[in-house]
Design brief:
alpha/beta, 13 helices, Rossmann fold
Length: about 400
């Protein structure tokens, strides 16, 4: 997109409960429209209830907001930062009302998702469009979204210190040949992965690999982005040349009859121990920005328990959080879009897949519905597609 004179930044995230009484209402928000009974939601609620009903994601976003404000101020960029969530307070609509009350008109949204899929990319844009419509601000406020940043140097480099330290520790203990790095990300349905597009890139990857969408070799764009970053990180760490690695998935949900991206991290660890005699697992939460509940439960709890049962060493590396490289990288990408700056940074990307698009291409990050049809991606709720005439 051409640079614009933005006057506010919106940090947009998933949201999470902040007490035991919030847990079920939060999970109802997350699963709205799916008809999931409270009895089934309580199975997931145990993850939160074991931690006092509090998800760490909200406090992490408060810290990230403060870090963004500090970095913008240090660069002399006069932009206020607001925060809004998809599934818990502060909700995106109420934050947009606050932004408008404060007199702002053009908003640039930074989301806490780095990769391309419906829930991590396009759904945020739809959320902004729906929120503008619900609040009656369609003709008063414009909201654009920052590009996906999976291979931006700031995001990639924020994983390096912790990964290097973990590899040094494990290689010293058991040797490189007995150490394996598991790059973990959120699983999504195979059909959603196939629809993540953009279609031309997905087709090109499929032609190169000869594989169908959903296979681990990255024939879908979602997996391909993760694999590209994982390969890059292993090449960047001194200890990575002789250590094996693989991409694994976690946090799948839904009926077993619906295929999701595999292998599951616990299954992958067991196979590596059985087939290759692996004695140490280094788990990198590559698909996540912060230590929210799915990282704490699925990795720090369940995957760690699997490693203990297998009798192998286990270490989980850091998420970007408020790492200085990550925060600086986000502000770099904000700066790319600011017309008011005399000098803007180049659109940086460290893999052949990036830098990613500022605006989603037609049919990318599509949502596959329960009946197998693909949700249209050019509706009026796509806020960047048809900005109000008064704000063009």
């Amino acid at each position: 997109m051409a640079p614009k004179h933005y006057d506010a930044v919106l940090l947009a995230s998933f949201g999470g409960p902040e007490g035991q009484d919030d847990v079920l209402p939060f999970l109802r928000n997350v699963t709205r429209g799916r008809g999931i009974p409270d009895e089934r939601l309580e199975e997931v609620a145990t993850h939160y209830r074991a931690h006092g009903g509090v998800s760490p994601i909200n406090e992490q976003n408060r810290q990230l907001k403060a870090a963004l404000e500090a970095e913008l101020s240090a660069r002399g960029i006069d932009l206020p930062v607001y925060w809004g969530n998809r599934n818990w307070s502060p909700y995106i609509p109420e934050t947009l009302r606050e932004i408008r009350r404060d007199g702002h008109r053009r908003v640039l949204a930074v989301t806490t998702s780095a990769y391309s899929s419906y829930s991590s990319c396009r759904q945020y844009r739809e959320d902004f469009g729906v929120a503008l419509r619900e609040t009656g601000l369609e003709d008063e406020l414009a909201v654009d979204k920052l590009r996906q940043y999976f291979d931006h140097p700031g995001f990639v480099r924020s994983f390096l210190p912790s990964l290097s330290e973990a590899l040094r520790e494990m290689v010293a203990a058991v040797g490189a040949e007995k150490t394996h790095v598991f790059f973990a990300t959120h699983s999504i349905p195979d059909a959603d992965a196939a629809a993540a597009g953009p279609r031309p890139l997905a087709e090109a990857l499929r032609e190169q690999t000869g594989a169908e969408p959903g296979e681990q070799n990255g024939s879908d764009v979602y997996s391909a982005q993760h694999l590209a970053v994982a390969e890059l990180l292993m090449a960047m760490v001194e200890e990575g040349s002789d250590v094996g690695w693989s991409l694994v998935y976690q946090s799948r949900s839904g009926p077993p009859s619906v295929p999701w991206l595999e292998p599951d991290i616990s299954d992958a660890m067991e196979q590596k121990v059985t087939d290759d005699g692996v004695e140490a697992a280094v788990v990198v939460p590559l698909g996540f920005v912060s230590d929210h509940m799915e990282v704490i439960w699925d990795l720090d709890t369940e995957a760690a328990e699997t490693a203990e049962e297998l009798g192998i060493r286990f270490v989980r590396t850091d998420t970007p959080g408020t790492h200085r490289d990550f925060v600086a990288g986000l502000v770099d990408m904000v700066s790319e879009r600011l017309a008011q700056l005399d000098e803007r940074p180049e659109r940086a990307g460290m893999t052949d897949l990036g830098p990613w698009f500022d605006v989603c291409r037609p049919n990318c990050c599509a949502k596959v519905m329960r009946d197998g049809t693909v949700k249209p991606t050019t509706s009026a709720v796509d806020a960047e597609v048809t900005p109000p005439e008064s704000l063009r």
